[in-house]
Amino acid sequence: MADKLNAPDSVSISQSHVEETKFAQPEEQLKKRFTLLSVIAFGFTTMNSWVAFASGVAVPLSCGGGPALIYGLIVAGIVMATINIGFAELASAFPSAGGQYHIVYMTFPKSTRRVAAFFTGWISVIYIMAATASCNFFVAGSILDLVNLWNDGYEIQAWHTYLLHILLSIIAFGATSRFPTAIGKLGVSILVLSIVGFVASLVTLLTVQETKQSSDFVFRQYTNVSGWSDGWAFFIGVTGCLWAYSGVDAPTHVSEEVANPSRNVPIAIITTMALGIVTVLAWNIALMFVVTDLQALVESGVPILEVYNQALNSKVATTIWAVYYIVMFYDIVLNLFIFAGRTIWSLSRDGGVPYSKFISHLNWASPVRASAIMLVLQIIIGVLYVASATAYSSFINLTLFALNITVALPQAALLLRGRSILPERAFSLGKFGYVTNATATLFVIFFSVCFCFPVGYPVTASTMNYLIVVMAVGLVVTALVWAVKLRKTFTGPQLDSYEGDFHH
Q1: Domain ranges in the chain?
Q2: What is the 3-state secondary structure (H, E, C) of 451-489?
Q3: In this predicted model, what pLDDT tens digit does every residue of 21-32 receive, in sequence order?
Q4: Of 19 and 379, the one with more pLDDT
Q5: CA 371, 36, 401 angle in degrees (round to 5)?
Q6: Residues near 318 by Cβ (< 8 Å), separated by ≥ 6?
Q7: Hey, what CATH topology would domain 7-14+29-502 get?
Q8: For residue 162, how far is the Cα from the chain centroid?
Q9: Residue of 200, 324, 395, 452 with fewest CB within 10 Å of its CB?
């Protein structure tokens, strides 16, 4: 039985403040363009665990080899499933293109909801910017690594990668702004291609390589070269494995473009998590059975190329699989541009960004101007990639750190205010709600601390984790923007902006 709705407390808005600011809500609405299948595909291909995590195996491997990787993925799967099941319920209760920003507003007390929602919205934009840059630079780097694979005389320069990053960003912006429906259909094809590739990859790795590692090497030989003690190294490894399940919030940002979002968005989130855990665990077990040089894999700039080089020992085969991964990762970039545009548009619709009236305008029933903001941010953040690899890496590390905080904040609010503030919804945790929300909150608190530690010890200037510094800078910038201008225009979500099937 769903919890009862406390209507005045859960959806009320300060009317006097809205009239004070005189910020008019646009009447434009996003077009219903996604089916349940395309939303599931959108979620799965954004997270695409077994593909995406192929670029992040170095940290858990250095923290304990095969056992740290395999058991770390299992523990990380439990942690992220708990966090995201709690979030799926909130997405069912308050579906909106704003995602976490909207949910935080609806769950926080009246006295703090505007400020909390504003900061959540801007932090969401920052982590989406970091995630998009991370995936797009991986695509650009992989393309240039293929060039280097076939042309030993070519030397990759950081500015080469940056220019390719800009080109790929422009293409992604154009495609997602003008043809979002086609991108949704493409996502279904990519979902099928991902599953087919997953099976083919397992078969390729396990049948081509004649000499296999022992089960002891994969499951029991704990080799910690991180410099941390074995116990703490395991938690650092688990923290690294959390990246395998990032991006599961993607379906929430197309809530206004799918029928019955209260039902369909949670289905997409839960399906994404289930498929992600199964595929990433199976693929990495196969990887550990065929790897021949663990240290080379840890030190590789593009680990997935190293995996296939070791397993297949063939330039042609490595190239085929590298192209496959490039396609998979670039689809993630397309998805990120889609929900970046919708997040910024939702925030601008409520007066939460400069020049909100201009940015909130839709073209072809799509937030083209809001998406253009993300394109500009990609060009800017790319400069950091060229200027300082350490600063760029610290900024990228902000992605999952900030994402988990934004999905845990409203769950913490439920613990303080009571779950009775939730409206009727298609997906309810019922009697398991408090336990889930409390566990999710504790998980996020603990692993947020873990995220702040350097992955290796002893720590040098180049290996230092500057995550806290980057997060502080982001919060300071957001606070300045709030204080100088946007506190006067930001209204928070307006109920008449959302259609009737949103179950408020």
Answers
A1: 7-14+29-502
A2: HCCCCCCCCCCCCCCCHHHHHHHHHHHHHHHHHHCHHHC
A3: 333 344 567 888
A4: 379
A5: 50
A6: 149, 305, 308, 309, 312
A7: Amino acid/polyamine transporter I (1.20.1740)
A8: 22
A9: 200
